[in-house]
Amino acid sequence: MGQKVNPVGLRLGINRGWDSVWYAKKQDFGNYLIEDFKIREFIKKNIINSGVSKVMIERSA
Asked: In terms of pTM, does the model score above 0.70?
């Protein structure tokens, strides 16, 4: 039997990058993570038929 591997985790760094690219201080990390989640949910709900295949979030340091 073969091993089951997450395809996204396997390809990260090889031929695919992260969906969110940002750094945060320890006290800000949770807030940024929640904001990312809310942004993605908003886009999924409101722009569902526009053909957006991937949402990448970048923040300046």
From this structure: no
